[in-house]
């Protein structure tokens, strides 16, 4: 059989282009910098934040931040990992849209001292809107731990649908945790709900 007609399993999906700078009414979402390491370490040293994330170790230290930042700032990654900042340009969180197992996946976190101000809704909506303009036919997958109803509410108001439930290992909790899986289908983004 001709190898040229067999599907390649190592091919990445089409990419949305370089990580953009996105400005909203209150925020700037920008590519990460090595100088973000200290602010990231402060945020991700807080168990209230990391307990809701699957892939962040505890304890989290500056070297963990640098290990994550170096490939992203060196241009080795084509995924979008956007630092959330306010007018002072200090890193307060992250919105990422990256490829996992051949599918685009949304992840996000925010320093606890910025919770309940609508910042995450504004940041996620802006990132998804820009991504949808560049990749209009692409579904975006995500999910939340079952004990994170605020994050699930954010996703649902943006148009994500629940598609299943699984258990996901949480490094911070050092155990398997029930996880609600979601998807945002092409054309389903509801920006008016994010306000």
Automatic annotation (TrEMBL):
Source organism superkingdom: Bacteria
Pfam families: Acetyltransf_3
A molecular function GO annotation: acyltransferase activity, transferring groups other than amino-acyl groups
Domain N-acetyltransferase: 27-181
Keywords: Transferase
PANTHER family: ACETYLTRANSFERASE-RELATED, N-ACETYLTRANSFERASE DOMAIN-CONTAINING PROTEIN
Protein name in UniProt: RimJ/RimL family protein N-acetyltransferase
Species in which this protein is naturally found: Rhizobium leucaenae
């Amino acid at each position: 059989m001709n190898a040229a007609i067999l599907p390649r399993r190592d091919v990445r999906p089409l990419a949305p282009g370089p990580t953009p700078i996105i400005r909203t009414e209150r925020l700037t979402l920008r590519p990460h910098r090595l100088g973000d390491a200290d602010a990231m370490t402060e945020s991700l040293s807080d168990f209230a934040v990391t307990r809701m994330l699957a892939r962040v170790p505890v304890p989290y230290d500056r070297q963990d931040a640098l290990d994550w930042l170096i490939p992203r700032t060196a241009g080795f990654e084509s995924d979008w990992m956007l630092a959330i900042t306010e007018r002072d340009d200090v890193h307060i969180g992250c919105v990422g849209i990256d490829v996992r197992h051949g599918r685009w996946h949304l992840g996000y976190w925010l320093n606890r001292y910025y919770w309940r101000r609508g910042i995450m809704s504004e940041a996620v909506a802006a990132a998804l809107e820009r991504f949808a303009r560049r990749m209009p036919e692409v579904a975006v997958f995500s999910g939340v731990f079952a004990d994170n109803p605020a994050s699930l509410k954010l996703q649902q108001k943006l148009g994500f649908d629940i598609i299943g439930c699984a258990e996901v290992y949480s490094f911070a909790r050092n155990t398997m945790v029930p996880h609600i899986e979601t998807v945002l289908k092409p054309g389903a983004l509801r920006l008016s709900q994010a306000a």
